[in-house]
Amino acid sequence: MNYKQNERLNQLTDETLIIGVDISKEFHVARAQDVRGIEFGKSIKFNNSLSGYLEFESWINEIKVVEEKNQVIIGMEPTGHYWLNIARYLKANEYTVVTVNPMHVKKIKELDDNLQTKTDKKDAKIIAQLVKDARYSTPNLLEGEYEELRNAKNLRQVVVKDLNRTKNQIHNWLDRYFPEYKEAYASWESKSFIKIIKRYTFPSVIERISPNEIYEMLPPKMRRGVGLGKIERLVTASKNSIGIKEGLSFAKLEINYLLEKYDSFQQQIEEINNYVTDICSSLDETSKIIQIKGIGIVTASGIVAELGDIRKYKTPKQIIKMAGLSLTENSSGKVKGTTSISRRGRKDLRRLLYQVILGMIRTNTAFKEMYIYYTTRRKNQLTGKQAIIALCRKLLRIIHALIIKDVDYDEAKMMSQIKYPDEFLNEAA
């Protein structure tokens, strides 16, 4: 993957046919030019279908012959999901496909005509010009196991979202019909409590049943983990319940429906996790990443799903940029501005890394030490959030090194590489 603009410029020659494609749901519009910006032929509007793609290819080949070009590079905006089909089709047919930043397209609309108008032809031309200026990037179109992992990650996110919504609905139901359950159970997600609610549902029913009968109703393994005392507290709480006592027939249907959804979503997540585990068993990347204490298989698969084949990245800086964690500084003259992260990258990866580091500063000795150092040193002391971002960047560097160099994670070696200034060591002593 080439990220330096000079390297990208060197890839464009007099024999390069540059094509800009404006993407939409039903159809696409394309325009062609050379590296000097001279346009070729008329624009083409083609359907988002196989016949449309073949028409587009025929148009490209005609221009190649007439203008004597032997190299084609096709640029487009990676907005929404409509660009994926044509991008994958073109890549499969050995075309060079690149993407341009939609923000760049928006900002330079007025260069040619000083108007803010938007048309498909105009946008296609702007995209081609951005490619000509080497202001493009190579899209990370995943293949094989990497695409499977990303799809699994996306599906898991959907199911988890549905599960959380269902949990909130169940919590709402309990607030209305049995708010006192908390006197016996810290969480309603206890398997024994769910079984009791499925069987008896309302406090007005539970209060009439002896604790021993409820206790004996539970499976033996579940009884050992609960204890009779908890059941007794639940029965006592039922007798003093202020829960709603009207409309119970529908309320019973409601909670049964919600608990069925809850069980279904839990099962689906388990199936997805098992599927992910099977895929990860064939990938060296995940086996390397889970060596780092605090990172499990689901997290490791999520990182790989976002990045794809990490071996394609020459340097860790490219991965950091992909995550939107590159540092930017606003300065002018002698005034040095504040430094912040770019946030131009995969936000899901950035969110995942942030959550991982939050856990690692509690469970991973090396990362905990670095967090303490970053937030307590006298010179260039970081806030808690800044330290977490710094550790996100550190983690990506470690992951890149483990995979590219094919080495195992060594926490002791990492600890030895932490450079403490004298004042920090004195304070620690």
Q: Please give the share of residues in helix.
A: 55-70%
Poorly predicted runs: none
Portion in beta strands: 5-15%
Calculate the terminal CA-CA distance, rounded to whole Å.
47 Å
If helices are DSSP runs of H or I spanning 4 or more residues, what is the number of helices?
20
Count of distinct structural domains: 3
* Class computed from helices, strands and strand pairing: alpha/beta
Order of strands, widest sheet: 3-2-1-4-5
Assembly annotation: single chain
pLDDT averaged over residues:
89
List keywords for this structure.
alpha/beta, Nucleotidyltransferase, domain 5, Helix Hairpins, 3 domains, five-stranded mixed β-sheet, 20 helices
Task: List strands and helices in order, with pairings.
Elements: H1 5-10, E1 16-22, E2 27-33, E3 39-47, H2 50-67, E4 71-76, H3 82-92, E5 96-99, H4 102-107, H5 120-132, H6 144-177, H7 191-200, H8 203-206, H9 211-217, H10 220-226, H11 228-239, H12 248-280, H13 284-289, H14 297-307, H15 316-322, E6 327-329, E7 339-341, H16 347-363, H17 365-376, H18 384-404, H19 411-416, H20 422-428
Parallel strand pairs: 1-4, 4-5
Antiparallel strand pairs: 1-2, 2-3, 6-7
Helix pairs in contact: 6-12, 6-14, 9-11, 14-16, 15-18, 16-17, 16-18, 17-18
Describe the structure.
By secondary structure, this protein is an alpha/beta fold. The chain has three domains: 5-141, 2-Layer Sandwich (Nucleotidyltransferase, domain 5), CATH 3.30.420; 147-277, Helix Hairpins (Orthogonal Bundle); 290-428, no CATH class. It is 58% helix and 9% strand. The strands form two sheets. It has a five-stranded mixed sheet. Helix 3 (82-92) links the parallel strand 4 and strand 5 (96-99). The mean pLDDT is 89.
